[in-house]
Design goal:
Length: 91
């Protein structure tokens, strides 16, 4: 019997906590990527604006979730003028 998952992170993560963390990081990375693309920045320009190295921007743009903590991604979004709204649902 095949098990169905709500999202890919539930399928690949070891725990529900890990799945939620991965999902949040992926959403933030996608928003950061969108903002970089909107501005038309090269990886080097994005690196200078975010205060990171160009290889780190490359990892970001390739969606390497494991390389970025929630804290780092929140700081990057804030640097880009982003705001995060937190909504907690009780199951």
């Amino acid at each position: 019997m095949n098990k169905r998952y709500d999202n890919v992170f539930d399928a690949i993560a070891g725990t529900p906590q890990e799945a939620l963390n991965m999902k949040l990081r992926a959403e933030m990375i996608n928003e950061i990527r969108r903002r970089i693309e909107q501005r038309g920045w090269t990886q080097q320009e994005a690196a200078e604006q975010l205060g990171i190295t160009q290889p780190r921007v490359s990892d970001l743009l390739r969606g390497k979730l494991s390389r970025f903590s929630l804290d780092v991604l929140v700081n990057m979004l804030a640097t880009l003028g982003g705001d995060i709204e937190l909504k907690i649902k009780v199951a």
